Amino acid sequence: MALNLVKLCVGCTAIEDLAAWIDFRLDERRRAGLPAEQFHTTRMVPKRAEELLDGGSLYWVIKGNIQCRQRLTDLRTFTDDEGISRCNLVLEPRIIVTEWQPRRAFQGWRYLTSEDAPLDEGQGKSGRAKLPPELRNELASLGLL
């Protein structure tokens, strides 16, 4: 069974912000002549790599809720210019909207089992992904989503 990661999406207030960031970074890499792949760099290297790469995803927490995920395709460790070990979490650039699941703030990333992960949007009962982002965020801030 696949294992997942959950991480705060710092600086994003909506899924659309994350999508725009991904598009910007992919375009930036293409213009630089680099492979158009998306990754997130983290300091800690997941110890359970095999489980993560067996269909796992990175679930993003935006505004206090898990709201979407991206499938993990690879984990690449490296040492940066300062001699610090790091890991690139290579992600499929496609964002999969999920049911919202409240999450408190934390540092780094956490493991998330498939049983505890929210369902993809459309597999559950809510249709909040169809709401405009501003309305979705306002309703969430009022505790109505």
UniProtKB/TrEMBL annotation:
Pfam families: DUF1489. It comes from the Bacteria. This is DUF1489 family protein. InterPro entries: UCP032025.
